[in-house]
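User: Some background: our group keeps a shared notebook of sequences we're curious about, and every so often someone picks one and asks for a predicted structure to add to the entry. Today it's my turn. The entry only has the sequence so far, pasted here. Could you supply the structure so I can complete it?
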Amino acid sequence: MDRLKAPARLMIVSDLDHTMVDHHDTENLSLLRFNSLWEANYRHDSLLVFSTGRSPTLYKELRKEKPMLTPDITIMSVGTEITYGNSMVPDDGWVEVLNKKWDRNVVKEEASKFSELKLQAETEQRPHKVSFYVEKDKAQAVTKALSEVYEKHGLEVKIIYSGGMDLDILPQGAGKGQALAYLLKKFKTEGSSPVNTLVCGDSGNDAELFSIPEVYGVMVSNAQEELLQWHAENAKGNTRIIHATERCAAGIIQAIGHFKLGPNMPPRDIADFSDYKLENPNPGHEVVKFFLFYEKWRRAEVENSAVYLASLKADCCPSGTFVHPSGVEQSLPECINGLRSSYGDKQGKQFRVWVDGVLATQVGSDTWLVKFDKWELSGEERHATKTTAVISSKGSDVSYGFTWIRVHQTWYKGYEGKDDTTWHF
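Assistant: Of course. Here's the predicted structure to add to the notebook entry:
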């Protein structure tokens, strides 16, 4: 699938802080559960969009702190910036839209006359966003007065108050909702409208997302009062919007199931894969399954049984090879044997493994080239490799499972391992 030119089976548009990312979940389990679900079942034919109030600087900081996936599209700075892919290519068409009736200098100058407003950090000031802090009890009066001032200047601005302290001033045509509407219109023009779209949020600056016609919506269980109030006043009878009973990413998973948008069983929740049969097996699920077992094995969350390793070896070609990120080529079955000595070496420790951007290309009638980033978090250290795997189906179709033929890893720049001997796969 050309990720942006084919109609997505599902497009998830999610806020980050306190929606996709739960800052109270120190193990990040909710986020990791979502990651496994997305990479196993959706990455190959769906789109993931992050819509955040964060500036690019703070967004990149969050990605370093949390085990987040790479989105296909990133909407930042409260809907004033749209970028594509890991390289974050900007959408120039959106910039042109926002330039209409917007004068940043006048906006900032007039706002600075209000003593109630405290300018946020320079990183949060963007070409189409001027951001302040304001006390909750003064927000409404300041917003009203500012609106009148800008109207006299002939400017069309939007003032958004959220999070109990953030006040953002944007062009009238900006915002999370308008950015999403722009994308949906763009997809429709190109004949690639998503089959279903699910928007996810927790605060006031997410309200616009739920106003877009034809989308499904989930307010996570920990949604703030300002969003719940907006819903009560504007969308109470809308059955396409739910208030989840689960927090953050778990609430998003809940919504996928509630609206029947596709599979909603995260592979991370499955205790024993030998008893689990996927309805539509795919290479992405095989990759997720393998590395989840690898994590559980080292954390001693599965039984120390030769049966498990024998099953893994049965999924490897006898002549299969593994190229370690150090450059050393090894026998794939022998690498599986080597796991015996690492059983439980991370028991009781902070150790998590996840994969990101799993994309498979069919290169033969029964063979796929699969590319992805593989991440390990061990204590405070995070390491990653760019990984390429060749796998084939065991029988006439993928329902018989897959065989690993070759795995090749190279260190991800900036996340190299210090000790090659501790990196198994």
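Suggested note for the entry: Residues 270-422 form a domain with the Nuclear Transport Factor 2; Chain: A, fold (CATH 3.10.450.50). The chain has a mean pLDDT of 93.
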